[in-house]
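Example S7 (structure tokens).
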């Protein structure tokens, strides 16, 4: 697939250093959102082919914010044109220091309990999901609103069991798994290399996505 966006650069990440809701949103809309919208269009057919169902892109609008500027932004893909939060979905987005490429099941999704049971049942498969040479770039998170997480290489079976337990019993629980690329990563500057990395990451995460159904 040919990517025509120029990738993401320091100017894009610097958006999250701008003070104030309106100034940050203005910069985000001008610099970052067009790239996310294009990624959404470019990758929807790939994800549709990978999942076997039509996938629709949803770019974060941050419309409910009235005071605090967003700490991150993203494009999400899900199998509904109306929205993504209630469904297992894929995301590419940014915090101030890194770009994330993840599969997510967040608190609004009733699929949490299904995924929790699958994580328990398929523990070995999940632990072996990430290729050895990539395990330091893949992270697990239990809160999509906060940056950071636990590296897959550090998670261990006990960590996975804790995620599964929380996912199955806590109403507001959620889980995200995917790749974090630091803002100085050369792959971010090259649109073609970035799309290749995103596609490889999503291919790795497809089995996890399917476990949520």
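Recovered sequence:
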């Amino acid at each position: 697939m040919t990517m025509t966006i120029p990738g993401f650069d320091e100017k894009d990440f610097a958006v999250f250093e701008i003070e104030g809701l309106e100034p940050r949103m203005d910069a985000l809309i001008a610099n970052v959102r067009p790239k996310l919208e294009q990624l959404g269009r470019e990758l929807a057919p790939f994800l549709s082919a990978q999942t076997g169902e039509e996938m629709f892109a949803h770019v974060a609008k941050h419309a409910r914010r009235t005071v605090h500027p967003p700490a991150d932004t993203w494009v999400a893909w899900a199998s509904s044109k109306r929205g993504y939060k209630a469904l297992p979905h894929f995301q590419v987005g940014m915090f101030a220091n890194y770009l994330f490429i993840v599969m997510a099941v967040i608190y609004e999704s009733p699929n949490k309990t299904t995924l929790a049971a699958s994580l328990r049942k398929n523990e070995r498969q999940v632990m072996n999901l990430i290729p050895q040479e990539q395990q330091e770039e893949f992270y697990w998170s239990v809160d999509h609103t906060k940056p950071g997480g636990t590296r897959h290489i550090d998670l261990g079976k006990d960590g996975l069991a804790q995620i599964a337990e929380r996912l199955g019993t806590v109403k507001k629980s959620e889980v995200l798994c995917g790749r974090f690329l630091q803002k100085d990563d050369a792959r971010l500057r090259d649109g073609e290399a970035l799309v290749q990395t995103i596609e490889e990451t999503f291919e790795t995460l497809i089995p996890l996505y399917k476990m949520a159904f």
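Notes on this example. The radius of gyration is 17 Å.
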